[in-house]
Amino acid sequence: EPEVTQTPSHQVTQMGQEVILRCVPISNHLYFYWYRQILGQKVEFLVSFYNNEISEKSEIFDDQFSVERPDGSNFTLKIRSTKLEDSAMYFCASRDGHLTNEKLFFGSGTQLSVL
Amino acid sequence: AQSVTQLGSHVSVSEGALVLLRCNYSSSVPPYLFWYVQYPNQGLQLLLKYTSAATLVKGINGFEAEFKKSETSFHLTKPSAHMSDAAEYFCAVSDQTGNQFYFGTGTSLTVIP
């Protein structure tokens, strides 16, 4: 089965630093997502991306966050100035086509630790 | 607004026993409902989904779930637990745009030999 790939698997950074989390969605997919899971809490929606623009974002996704699809294969999440509370597992996901019930394919996640 | 509630953050069953993981949803529109499984150090994998067709949905690895509108529930079951079923299970709901998935807090399943 095709996979969504995320790198790195674990990233450690100092508070206030910028981080970029990278994802390679499945090649023919059109919709891309970032979710995060703070330890012990539920998986939370951050942002969805379609046709090279953000289609929906949550309250969590403030001005410190941005997403980009720089080269047609990668899908990145940037946090400009990390805070301690940004420590979480970040999941990238993608889905195919225009059917709204198409399943999401998730990557294995990037564990971000902000010190 | 949509949300799901998973009752029981930890469930333990004996190998061969029935698995029952509970999920209740809240949705102002007809929902799409999903169960995902997360094995250690892996991403979320789809077990099964309900998208307004048959109310009893069969998924992978012998799991199934039944959509009960009157109870706003979508509980996950498996007749006989296997050691390999030990994982974290997440219930999720989306509306029909599929643009946002709302996840529950997860249920950690332990299978006792």
Topology:
The complex is a heterodimer of chains A (115) and B (113).
Chain A: E1 5-7, E2 10-13, E3 19-24, E4 31-37, E5 43-50, E6 53-57, E7 65-68, E8 75-79, E9 88-95, E10 105-106, E11 110-114
Parallel strand pairs in A: 2-11
Antiparallel strand pairs in A: 1-3, 3-8, 4-5, 4-9, 5-6, 7-8, 9-10, 9-11
Chain B: E1 2-7, E2 10-14, E3 19-27, E4 32-38, E5 44-50, E6 56-58, E7 64-68, E8 73-78, E9 87-94, E10 101-103, E11 107-112
Parallel strand pairs in B: 2-11
Antiparallel strand pairs in B: 1-3, 3-8, 4-5, 4-9, 6-7, 7-8, 9-10, 9-11
Short structural summary:
The complex is a heterodimer of chains A (115) and B (113). Chain A contains no helices and eleven strands.
Features:
heterodimer; A: 115 residues; mainly beta; 7-stranded mixed beta sheet; 4-stranded antiparallel beta sheet; globular; B: 113 residues; 6-stranded mixed beta sheet; 5-stranded antiparallel beta sheet; 0% helix; 58% strand
Q: For this entry, what is the oligomeric state of its chains?
A: heterodimer
Average pLDDT over all residues of chain B: 90
| Low-pLDDT segments of chain A | none
Dominant shape of chain B: globular
Distance between the termini of chain A: 36 Å
Number of E-type strands of chain B: 11
Number of helices of chain A: 0
Protein described:
The complex is a heterodimer of chains A (115) and B (113). With 115 residues, chain A is mainly beta. Chain A has no helices and 11 strands. In chain A, strand 7 and strand 8 form a beta hairpin. Chain A starts with a strand and ends with a strand. The mean pLDDT of chain A is 90. With 113 residues, chain B is mostly beta strands. Chain B is globular and about 40 Å long. Chains A and B meet through strand 4, strand 5 and strand 9 of A and strand 4, strand 5, strand 9 and strand 10 of B.
